[in-house]
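Lab notebook, page 48
Experiment: co-folding of the full assembly
Goal: obtain a model of how the components sit together before planning crosslinking
Operator: M.T.
Materials (sequences as entered):
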Amino acid sequence: MDWLNTIIRTFFDFGAMAEVLPQLLAVGLLNTLIISIAATVLGTVLGMAVAVMGISPSKWLRVPARIYTDLFRGLPAILTILLIGQGFARLSQSVFGPSPYPLGIIALSLIASAYIGEIFRAGILSVDKGQGEACRALGMSYAKSMALVVVPQGVRRVLPALVNQFIAIVKDSSLVYFLGLLVSERELFRVGQDAAVLSGNLSPLVAAGLFYLVITVPLTHLVNHFDNKFRTGRRRAAPPTSGLQEVKELDAASPLTAGSNT
Amino acid sequence: MNTPISTKSTAVQEVPAFHGSSLELRNLTMAYGDIEVLRNVSLTVAPGTTTCIIGPSGSGKSTLLRGINRLHEPKSGDVLLAGDTILGTNPDTLRTRIGMVFQHFNLFPDHTAEENVALALWAVKGMPKAQAMAKARQRLAEVGLAERADHRPRDLSGGQQQRVAIARALAMEPEVMLFDEATSALDPELVKGVLNLMAGLGRRGMTMLVVTHEMGFARKVADQVVFMDEGEVVEAGTPTQLFDNPRSERLQRFLSEVL
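Observation: model returned without errors.
Model output:
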């Protein structure tokens, strides 16, 4: 069983894993979470702006949103990250200091916002036109009817797709290492890779991979949960009723209907 | 115009009367792109009266209603609400004065019945939320839905949903109510209840424009009936004039098919 031993030594060397574990937890996991969460929040906010611009009646908002989306969705993530991370390095230095970390987060957010914008846009467009019309007929402005009625319904419908995008952000956060991070700024992938190079053994990378799964798998199940919940709906279970019940309800109810002449 | 009410007059008096405004259309023309769907429609609706608009599908009835609250902007002509033109005013302000009820209810599915009614009260009129909810429950009680204030639309029957929609429009205290085939999507058994509710509004002084296929309702409740075809008013008058002595061949034909 030589090959089995080789596999275990290469991928599942628990000694090597245990050695890198403190770093993975204290540095890698922490930074991956910081990058992912920051990029998710920024990307969602930007994405909502892009989506609302994209469905605007005004061409001056729609066209820029379209170009933005095509650009950041059409380029490889690694290229965008390098262009932004290195292209704006000097500017970033005067604002954030020498670390490329903030630029990495911004680049990831821009990429994510292009996808999230499209997800939101699809959701908002899927809401029945009558919803907006009902709002407008009640005297609500376009902005209010969007903010209070149409957008919340649209967002709820695309939650599963949105969580998928969050998972993609967690995975893409590993690309930030291309910008050259300080030792304390390394995320899961870089910590695992460094240890793998030092020990000549892939087990630290496998350990890093396990941490990614710890983050992404629960998210995947969250998607399924949402999907089930929204597909089956939340209608209250009720016994079969007679239409007469409602006829009676009306007859008994109101001064408005009293003395009817139909 | 008001039907005398003998037996239940005390109940009716408990509910405050409405103050409907007059409405006048002058040569109203509306178009979708290059296609004119409404041509030179003129119509006068006295305060507190009910006008029923009948006619085949595609004759421009719904478009007419949508021109009055400017959900679709008129191409030419004028609409006067309480004597003043509505064109050139802020459409949002105009729409707080005109209630509209839709064929498919268009209730907000993620809001309960009372939240549906209360939403525009706080979002448009700036009423404190607690007060808006209290007023919403009161309006729902008036349409017989006090028990179901916390139900979402999907837990309500079509008739109940449409009554919530009527309560939602009434809560804004409009001067005119527009009904766009309000009973066309309802169970047959529930149609009468909603029509009775609408008739009650008319008796309490609301100015109403009702697009309907319910000829019985038009005959009994309307002060004025308007028959439309191909984007034009073919004939208008009292229910007796239109239903018993139709002058135009087109209306005679229409009535022979539907009655």
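Interpretation: Confidence is low (pLDDT under 50) at residues 257-262 of chain A.
Next step: discuss with group before ordering constructs.
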